[in-house]
Design brief:
The structure is a single chain. By secondary structure, this protein is an alpha/beta fold. The protein contains seven helices and five strands; from the N terminus they run βαβαβαββαααα. Helix content is 47%, strand content 12%. The protein has a five-stranded mixed beta sheet, with helices on both faces. The termini are far apart.
């Protein structure tokens, strides 16, 4: 079992030492040995997945413990915090927040948290779907044409390799070989050639 201490401040003017002091004091009381520290100065509005916290969580294994001074260190929004806690709980890791006296692990509060997160995520998906449907209905009522214009096509990763593909076709290289060179499927190449109206000369 590894025990990690995590501290975060939003600006360089704030002090990480206070958070570390609280965590060390708790660890000493519980006879915990901190295996590793993770400290960062970054806004909590940035997703934990794109912070050092995300890297730490991915590294944590079943039974590991994360010590934080307060729950708000994980994120600024409720959904962000719940997503982070849910991820840790799925890995069977324990989170201890000192200020709130909150402990997430194999217990009833943790199971309630998991249920709440699942319900919140479902509600959020439903709300997004409803807003999208309403927006499309309004645009349709206003006479706006929905969808991509007939004959148009979206951006493709093959567009960046157009010159190479044309050169290979000119040299009579087979489509199967071209697919390997540009790293795409036969269907993707065929669709790209068709939408770009590029004719392939038969051998």
């Amino acid at each position: 079992m590894a025990i990690y201490g995590y501290a975060r401040v939003s600006t360089a003017l704030q002090d990480l030492d206070n958070q570390k002091f609280e965590i060390l004091k708790y660890a000493d009381l519980k006879k915990f040995q901190i295996s590793e520290w993770c400290s960062e100065t970054i806004s909590g509005t940035k997703s934990y997945k794109h912070r050092e916290l995300g890297t730490l969580i991915e590294k944590m294994k079943e039974g590991d413990v994360l010590l934080i001074s307060e729950i708000s260190r994980l994120g600024r929004s409720l959904m962000e915090v719940m997503e982070c806690l849910n991820h840790l709980m799925k890995k069977n890791c324990k989170v201890i927040s000192l200020k709130e006296g909150f402990e997430l692990g194999d217990n009833i509060p943790a199971k309630i948290m998991a249920f709440c997160f699942g319900l919140s995520a479902e509600i959020e998906r439903s709300m997004i779907a409803a807003r999208t449907k309403e927006a499309l209905a309004r645009l349709k009522a206003e006479g706006k044409v929905l969808g991509r214009p007939v004959g148009s096509y979206g951006k493709s990763k093959l567009d960046e390799k157009k010159d190479l593909i044309l050169e290979l076709l000119d040299k009579k290289v087979s489509k199967a070989s071209i697919c390997k060179i540009v790293e795409c499927s036969d269907g993707t190449l065929g669709s790209w050639l068709m939408t770009r109206k590029i004719k392939v000369q038969k051998k």
